[in-house]
């Protein structure tokens, strides 16, 4: 039997890793660290740093780095993601067979939390659906959405109002979600908010949340729209990649 722990590690700040996550890391026999290409090598460096800082000296966990398969950008999105998840599941299975042929405990460090726009749980289900003796456990982590609201010092919702969490692609395709007073937008390839009416809309934007290079911008969308686009492009050029998130509302949240 393999026990696979999907461990939410927050957004890169070791102070945001929970005690439960630390215990899960220190109980693992193998810790898997994905490599996502040279452009995001500092994400791997952060995972390495977390292991160095959080693993006890007596812990005997074998830290294994592996290359994450890439998604075919030429295919239709959903079918490409389905194939991509299958490829990742095969890699996980191969690593488990190689490093824990007699069973044991695997720790997988998941950016943010496994529940929020992360596919680790879906990939893990492919292992169990294939008949493998894998028990999946989840250790929740702090999400980028939580860090965004904390850094901007705002609540997630307006008083007694609903919130919708969506993606940049959906925002472009469908506009402002109906009945949502506040909209949180993730996985935006850049500037989906420019498709919305600029007047009477407020934005709270953040990039590299929890990291040393964190950047925050807020204000009426009509006033900071261009600033966010320009800053985002400059940051992406400087670092080779960017992870950002933002919230939108029809009025200030405080």
UniProtKB/TrEMBL annotation:
Any Pfam family matching the protein: TP_methylase
GO molecular function per UniProt: precorrin-6A synthase (deacetylating) activity
Chain ranges of the Tetrapyrrole methylase domain: 3-224
GO biological process assignments: methylation
InterPro entries: 4pyrrol_Mease, 4pyrrol_Methylase_sf, 4pyrrole_Mease_sub1, 4pyrrole_Mease_sub2, CobF
Enzyme Commission numbers on file: 2.1.1.152
Alphabetic keyword roster: Cobalamin biosynthesis, Methyltransferase, S-adenosyl-L-methionine, Transferase
Pathway: Cofactor biosynthesis; adenosylcobalamin biosynthesis
Record has NAD as a keyword: no
Name this protein carries in UniProt: Precorrin-6A synthase (Deacetylating)
Naturally occurring in which organism (per UniProt): Halomonas casei
């Amino acid at each position: 039997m393999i026990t696979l722990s999907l461990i939410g590690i927050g957004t890169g700040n070791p102070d945001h890793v929970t005690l439960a996550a630390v215990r899960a890391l220190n109980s693992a026999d193998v810790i898997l660290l994905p490599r996502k290409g040279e452009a995001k090598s500092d994400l791997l460096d952060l995972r390495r740093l977390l292991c160095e800082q959080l693993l006890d000296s007596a812990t005997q966990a074998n830290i294994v780095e592996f290359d994450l398969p890439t998604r075919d950008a030429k295919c239709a999105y959903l079918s490409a993601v389905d194939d991509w998840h299958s490829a990742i599941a095969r890699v996980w299975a191969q690593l488990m067979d190689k490093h824990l042929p007699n069973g044991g405990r695997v720790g997988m460090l998941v950016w943010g939390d496994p529940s929020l726009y992360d596919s680790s749980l879906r990939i893990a289900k492919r292992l169990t659906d294939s008949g493998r003796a894998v028990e999946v456990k989840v250790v929740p982590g702090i999400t980028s959405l939580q860090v965004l609201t904390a850094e901007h010092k705002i609540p997630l919702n307006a008083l007694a109002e609903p919130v919708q969490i969506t993606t940049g692609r959906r925002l472009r395709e469908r506009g402002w979600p109906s009945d949502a007073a506040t909209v949180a937008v993730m996985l935006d390839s850049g500037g989906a908010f420019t498709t919305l009416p600029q007047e009477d809309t407020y934005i709270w934007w953040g990039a590299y949340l929890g990291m040393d290079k964190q950047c925050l911008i807020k204000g009426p969308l009509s006033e900071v729209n261009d600033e966010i686009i320009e800053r985002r492009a400059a940051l992406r050029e400087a670092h080779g990649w960017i992870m950002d998130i933002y919230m939108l509302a029809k009025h200030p949240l405080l």
